[in-house]
Structure formats: C-alpha cells, structure tokens
Amino acid sequence: MSDEPKRVAFIAHCLLNQNAKVEGGAKRPGMWEPVIDLLRARGYVIRQMPCPELAFGGARRFWGVREQFDTPLYRRHCRRLAKLVAAVIGQHAAAGDDIVLIGIDSSPTMGVDFTPSAPHWSGQPNIVEDDSTLVRGDGIFIEELKAELAERGLPEPRSTGIRHWFADYDPDEELERLGALLR
Amino acid sequence: MRDPRARRIAVVADSLLEPMLDELEREGFGVIQLPPAGLDRETVAAWLEQTAEHVAEFRRNDYEVVLADDGLCAAELEQALATFGIEPLPQYTG
Fold it and tell me: What domains can you pick out in chain B, each with its CATH number?
C-alpha cells in the first residue's frame, strides 16, 4: 500500500453484486452503477463488504425485517464478518486514509440511517402487501461492525445508506447526500 | 416483480477491479472482490472462507461464477472452495 493517503469507500456487497439481493430485489444486471460511477469519479478506492444475508439465509431467502434477523446466531454471524471488515478498515485508518461507508437503507442488515421493521411478521410467508415500515436506526451488521470498531479503538466512518427501494426515492436527493458524504 | 439480474458473477482480484469495472458492468457481471494485499494470513484465510461461502451458495443456485485473478489468492481460494466441494472456478475470458 503506498504512503499517500487514499479515499476509501466500504460499500454494501450488493452495490457491486446485484445477484446477492433477494429475488425480486435487483435493479440492475450486475452492479448499481450510480454509486460505483460516482465513487470512481471522486477517486475512491472501493472495498466491498460481505453480504451477511446471502451467506446466512441463502440466495432463495425471503424478504425480511429487522425483528426476524435480530437473533443471537445471526448477530454472531454478522460479527464474524464484521471482524474482517474492521481489519481492513484498521489497515486504512493506520495509513491515514479517508474512509466512508455506504450501506442500504431498506435492509435489516445493511441499513445505516433506516432499517425495515414489522414486529408482527412471522409464520407463513404469505404477506400480500408489504406493510413493514422504515424506522430510524442501523441494520444488524452495521451495529455489529460499529461495536467491533469500538472494541478495536477505531473511529466510525462517515456513512449513509442507499435508498433506491424507498417508495419516495429521489435520485437527485441521493446524489446530493452522497456528494456531501464524499466531499 | 421484474428482476434484471444477469446471474453472472466474477470473483475479481483487488488489483484488477478498477481496470475491469467498465467491462464487467457492460457485460452484466456482478462482482465479488477478493481481499486487498497487506492483510495478515489469518484475516486473508477468513476472508477467502466467506468468499467461498458466497460462491458455493451462488453455484448451488446455478449462477455462473468465474474468476479474474492476479495470482495473489488463487491457491488459497481454490482450497477454500474445495471445502465446499466446489471445483476451481473457470477463468474470466471477457
């Protein structure tokens, strides 16, 4: 790694790999290029984080909300992956690099500012209408990553979440928010 | 619900990601990025283990998975894949 400080973006797995989304959740054939293109234009090194949901629930998992994923075993799985991400963040922090994190604000796992909630979801997967709500807060992995960073004495990166699954998604607002994050 | 995923994934060495991104995007590939250089061996091994878990799940569901490798992690990745019964990945040919 060169001594020159870099700009580094840790991004949710699915931003580079739409195949990791739940079935029906991909918006592009391969990658979500609005974010990837912006990061490249701003000179950021891309660091893709693992997809905790894919590894744990599989490619055929159902959509889910925070309350379903918030189990001790899933948290342990997320912490295992968070240790890897924290090791790489530590490497960049030690080099004095500028680090940002971009999650997915419609995800129970990768949410940064918002995460989906539906305390009543359980049992037969026959919900006709998605009646979950987006509540303020982190997803499970992001919580575990922050805890791991705190244990290592590493600072939390500046962060935001992609909102392309919000009903009122506004690409211009998102671009502006990302622009502010990336400085 | 329409889902445009191409069901094609390239496992890409960190050093090759930036120069290959335009082509991979054009070809509709999703990417799994391999770990960067400079990490300790234990972290690299754990990173490749979770990479192999991702690959195994995609292969189990009939996704196409190829490898664009710079030689840094090839042997260890192959070993990690073998623990899930996955043969060495075919090389990305563009």
Answer: 8-82 (3.40.1010.10)
Give me the CATH code for the A7-122+131-182 domain, please. 3.40.50
Specify the 3-state DSSP secondary structure of B11: strand
Closest to B29 (Cα-Cα) out of B13, B45, B6, B46? B6
Residue B51: list chain A partners with CB under 8 A: 50
By the 10 Å C-beta count (0-12 exposed, 13-18 middle, 19+ buried), A12 is classed as: buried
pLDDT tens readout for residues A120-130: 999 988 888 88
Å between B30 CA and nearest CA of chain A: 4
Contacts of A22 in chain B (CB under 8 A): none
Kindly list the residues from chain A whose CB atom is less than 8 angstroms away from the CB atom of residue B6: 19, 29-30
**ipTM of the assembly?**
0.96
CA distance B11 to chain A (A): 10
Give the domain ranges of chain A: 7-122+131-182
For the segment A116-157, what is each residue's pLDDT rounded down to a tens digit?
999 999 998 888 888 999 999 999 999 999 999 999 999 999
